[in-house]
Design goal:
This protein is mainly α. The protein contains 21 helices and no strands.
């Protein structure tokens, strides 16, 4: 069949099959085109199948119940009822073949074919929900074509292929409460099946799975669950899909099943970015994430920084006790902290953790001293945030002000603070001083030196908000300096040249003298 003739030919075949059961064998011709490689032929064939089997579902001409094998049809049937049953069984087998092929087309090289196949499968899911092919097992059962839908989700989470574009198209269906609920169940099943079948799961599968899981967003209240893709005239309290607690259980199973596996490090970071506001608030039991978060917190580097948000939620809202939390937090203060991508998020959380007035003085002093020690080599954009941060610590905890003013203290020949000590209780920070801030008062950037001189004033004024300074960049500082109307005069030292290579009688020395 030529591509140019596909559209009218298939259209006539669909009309013939729908008009007369005697033309049922024409379905084979339609399904044959569905096996084609040409994109235009596939487009026409998918649309023809959508029209044909959509009409058959609406008219109730597909067998309902456990589907007998085609071998049982060979014996034949007697009477009109037997012939009708044989036709419906036979046609439902053709429908199953169509769905299997559409599932394969989700991995076609053409995105247009993928999108059309997905739309057709979702149409069949909606029609199967309205005209079930399975009989309800009990009264009030919410009939949803789970098996067909699970095959669609499995096609979206292909182990070997990148399905990001198709998953973006699928996001619009997640606005429906029933689709979202069954997506969570199907995704959990698919992750379990793929990890059982593969000794080494391809990275593309984890990326596909994360993209689907992160697109699931639960409503805050049960009264918001009313938007169903498979429509029903009357709702029932027996439907799990209508209860928010069931959604939260499915959400929890989905994420726990995903996070129990060894994920690529980049994916860990993506999950942790979402953890505190997208995942934890919707779990039925948020404390079940404790093992994952503490393991991530022990990894170090950016992963530890990102785990802070989730741990903070568990500690603040769910009374989590983590004895070594501040010790681990103290160990994260390294020179690289001023240069990482998540610097703003980290210092925002450190500010929250150190805001309690019940913290011991030695602990706050250790953080203040550690930050002062690191500030000596920090870039200006970080200093403009860290210096007010340190001053705020001294304002909150007056017992730590001995770091800047110790009227009867002994003179120190050397700094007793041990920067290599990992335990803040043993760092001897409270015996030291913030001499680094005095050194920074001579910083080359006038804004930094001005911020460092704030320590010379009496710290009785309200705290300085560091929120506007968390995202400050070197580019913004440079732009701010350029926009100043009167440049700040800077002291310069100019030593006249004494000749080329130190020879005062050279020609270069005479030229410099004339200039």
């Amino acid at each position: 069949m030529e591509p140019a003739d596909s559209r009218p030919a298939l259209g006539r075949l669909v009309e013939a099959v729908l008009a007369s059961r005697g033309e049922a064998n024409a379905v084979f011709d339609i399904l044959a085109v569905l096996q084609a490689e040409d994109e235009e032929d596939l487009d026409v064939a998918v649309r023809a199948c959508s029209r044909l089997f959509g009409a058959l579902l609406e008219r109730g001409e597909l067998f309902v119940g456990p589907l007998p094998s085609e071998e049982t049809l060979l014996a034949g049937a007697q009477g009109a009822k037997g012939a009708t049953r044989t036709y419906k069984v036979w046609m439902r087998h053709r429908y199953c073949s169509c769905c299997r092929r559409l599932r394969e087309l989700l991995g076609h090289r053409s995105f247009q074919v993928q999108e059309l196949a997905l739309g057709t499968l979702m149409k069949f899911i909606q029609l199967e929900g309205l005209h079930p092919l399975e009989r309800p097992k009990w009264e009030g059962n919410y009939l949803f074509p789970r098996e067909l839908f699970k095959s669609v989700v499995a096609g979206l989470l292909a182990p070997e292929d990148d399905r990001s574009l198709l998953l973006s198209c699928f996001r619009e269906y997640l606005e429906y409460d029933d689709i979202r609920y069954h997506t969570m169940q199907a995704a959990a099943d698919t992750v379990a099946r793929v990890t059982d079948q593969h000794l080494e799961v391809p990275p593309s599968f984890w990326e596909n799975a994360f993209m689907l899981l992160s697109a699931v967003s639960l409503p805050c209240q049960e009264r918001h669950i009313f938007n169903f893709y498979v429509k029903r005239e009357e709702s029932s309290d027996k439907w799990k899909v209508a209860h928010l607690k069931e959604h939260r259980k499915a959400f929890q199973v989905m994420w726990l099943g995903f996070l129990k596996h060894k994920l690529p490090i980049g994916l860990y970071k993506k999950v942790l970015v979402l953890m505190h506001d997208h995942i934890l608030p919707h779990l039925a039991q948020p404390t079940l994430m404790l093992d994952f978060l503490t393991s991530a917190y022990d990894v170090g580097g950016a992963v530890s920084l990102l785990a802070l948000n989730g741990l903070f939620v568990l500690m603040h809202k769910h009374n989590l006790e983590y004895p070594d939390f501040y010790r681990k937090l103290y160990s994260l203060l390294e020179p690289s902290i001023f240069h990482v991508k998540y610097r703003a998020r980290f210092f925002h959380l450190v500010d929250l953790f150190l805001s309690s007035s019940h913290l011991p003085a030695y602990l706050v002093a250790a953080f203040a001293k550690r930050l002062s020690h690191l500030a000596v080599t920090a870039p200006p954009e970080a200093l403009l945030m860290v210096l007010p941060f340190i001053c705020n610590l001294l304002r909150r905890h007056p017992a730590c002000r001995v770091l800047v003013h110790r009227p009867r203290g002994p003179e120190l020949d050397a700094d007793p603070y041990d920067p290599k000590e990992e335990d803040p209780a043993k760092s001897r920070a409270l015996e030291s001083s913030l001499w680094e801030l005095q050194a920074l008062q001579q910083h080359y950037h006038p804004e930094v030196s001005r911020a460092a001189r704030a320590i010379n004033q009496e710290l009785t004024i309200p705290e300085v908000s560091i929120a506007p300074l968390l995202e400050l960049t070197a580019y913004e500082i440079f732009e701010s300096d350029l926009k100043k109307e009167e440049p700040v005069p800077l002291p310069l030292e100019f030593v006249p040249a004494q000749g080329l290579l130190g020879r005062p009688d050279s020609l270069c020395a005479q030229l410099f003298a004339l200039s």
